[in-house]
Design goal:
The protein has 69 residues and is α+β, with helices and mostly antiparallel strands. It has one helix at 45-64, and strands spanning 11-19, 26-33, 39-44. The longest helix is centred in the last third of the chain and has 20 residues, at 45-64.
């Protein structure tokens, strides 16, 4: 883990995602926050792919604890 400080920003919801038409380009995700400014997160494709994998794994783990409907 990095020795950098961590900034915690309470997010209300994601409001927009923009994807580059270039497969090697960046993605930008905007989040609405409870503060005075929203957050624009710019991710290179490699970071977006890693985030997608982490979210998929988290979703699978969460599904293990949800009742079957």
């Amino acid at each position: 883990m990095s020795e950098k400080k961590t900034v915690e920003i309470p997010v209300i919801k994601p409001t927009m995602i923009q994807m580059s038409s270039d497969p090697r380009g960046d993605a930008a995700i905007t989040f609405e926050t409870i503060g005075d400014a929203d957050v624009l997160l710019v991710l290179p494709m490699t970071a977006l792919v890693a985030l997608e994998a982490m979210l998929a794994k988290a979703s699978q783990e969460q599904a293990k604890h949800q009742p079957v409907q």
